[in-house]
């Protein structure tokens, strides 16, 4: 770890402030979301505790030279894959999905941490193979690299996270110089694969897709929450109904409102002006600060990993908001920094720590 003042002078205060502000807003919204649900009353306090832990972890990660992580990329990748294998074999089952490792006092979801670790390891993997980017065989090798964890995540099953990992792959390899011809070939193969994979999806995953495509023909129970989410967003208007005053949320019509559908809840209560726009503005600001770091980094690995982290935040935000307003199918991906979830929140703070580490060492004189 490095606590050299010349290194820490590049620490992005504005990025950190935006992340903390968005997290604090999320804690307030979670408090409103769980009001009237005694079993969930500890969630706001737990989220705040995870936020504090995440902030400390972010500072520790920022102090570590990110090149230490990239130099250990095979060890990190191996540990990640091993954790996914363990989940498939003997992981904790919640809501018909086997995605967690139970440590007794806490449950950890390896795929949550893995999305950040994959961005780190794949960045170094690409940086070491830049001279091979024009070879289609190299493109296939990169697909196999990400395909192994994706396959294990798909078995949990977790379609949303599987798609997210594909997005990480695409953004990072595109930035590394993926030829257009390779992309066209892979697009055709991807469509063919989707046709083959669809029959093997879990029933609830198929239901989400068919519900999105043809909601009129879907079972009323399947579209209930999406209907309530749409009503929540529409009824919030410009100014909202007031904190703790949302009818859909407070009367229990909107389900899982502290995770998947928190955007609908905060839009109903705080409206467009104090709910949706501030959240989207802060996320947009965070993304711009991260992309700035990607642009400043002279190191290909640093450039790729920060772009990958930006892709994670962007995709999760777009999908989370999209499914709340019925323009995208429900996938289970949560709103970054706002939705409840200890593993997710700490992982996101780790990601910001990695971004800060790259930024703090982007000058040549800061290397070494």
How do you describe this structure in short?
This protein has one domain.
Give the topology, please.
Elements: H1 5-8, H2 13-33, H3 43-63, H4 66-71, H5 73-90, E1 92-94, E2 97-102, E3 107-108, H6 110-127, H7 136-154, H8 159-175, H9 180-197, H10 203-213, H11 220-236, H12 247-250, H13 262-296, H14 300-324, H15 342-360
Antiparallel strand pairs: 1-2, 2-3
Q: What would you note in describing this structure?
A:
The protein is mostly helical. It has one domain (5-362). Helix content is 69%, strand content 3%. The protein is built from 15 helices and three strands. A three-stranded antiparallel beta sheet has the order 1-2-3. A hairpin with a 4-residue loop joins strand 2 (97-102) and strand 3. Helix 5 runs antiparallel to helix 6 and helix 6 (110-127) packs parallel to helix 8 (159-175). The longest helix is centred in the C-terminal third of the chain and has 35 residues, at 262-296. The protein starts with a helix and ends in an 8-residue tail after the last helix.
């Amino acid at each position: 770890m490095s606590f050299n003042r010349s290194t820490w002078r590049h620490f992005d205060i504005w990025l950190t402030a935006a992340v903390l502000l968005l997290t604090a807003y999320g804690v307030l919204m979670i408090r409103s979301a769980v009001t009237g649900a005694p079993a969930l009353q500890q969630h706001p306090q737990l989220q705040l505790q995870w936020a504090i832990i995440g902030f400390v972890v972010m500072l520790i990660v920022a102090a570590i030279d990110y090149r230490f992580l990239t130099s250990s990329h095979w060890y990190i990748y191996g540990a990640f894959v091993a954790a996914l294998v363990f989940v498939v074999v003997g992981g904790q089952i919640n809501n018909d999905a086997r995605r967690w490792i139970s440590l007794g006092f806490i449950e950890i979801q390896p795929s949550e941490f893995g999305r950040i670790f994959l961005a780190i390891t794949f960045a170094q993997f690409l940086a070491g193979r830049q001279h091979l980017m024009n070879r289609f065989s190299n493109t296939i090798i990169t697909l196999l690299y990400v395909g192994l964890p994706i396959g294990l995540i798909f078995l949990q099953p977790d379609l949303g996270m599987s798609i997210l990992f594909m997005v990480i792959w695409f953004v990072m390899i595109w930035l590394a110089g993926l030829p257009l011809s390779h992309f066209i070939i892979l697009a055709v193969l991807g469509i063919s694969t989707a046709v083959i994979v669809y029959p093997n999806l879990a029933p609830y995953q198929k239901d989400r897709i068919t519900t999105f495509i043809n909601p009129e023909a879907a079972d009323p129970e399947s579209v209930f929450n999406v209907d309530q989410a749409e009503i929540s967003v529409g009824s919030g208007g410009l100014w909202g109904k007031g904190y703790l005053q949302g009818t859909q949320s407070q009367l229990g019509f909107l389900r899982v409102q502290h995770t998947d559908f928190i955007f609908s809840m905060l839009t109903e209560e705080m409206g467009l002006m104090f709910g949706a726009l501030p959240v989207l503005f802060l996320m947009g600001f965070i993304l711009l600060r991260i992309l700035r770091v990607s642009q400043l980094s002279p190191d290909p690995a640093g450039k790729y990993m920060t772009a990958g982290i930006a892709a994670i935040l962007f995709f999760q935000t777009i999908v989370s908001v999209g499914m709340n307003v019925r323009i995208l199918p429900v996938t289970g991906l949560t709103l970054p920094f706002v939705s409840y979830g200890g593993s997710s929140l700490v992982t996101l703070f780790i990601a910001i720590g990695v971004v800060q580490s790259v930024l703090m060492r982007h000058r040549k004189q800061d290397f070494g």
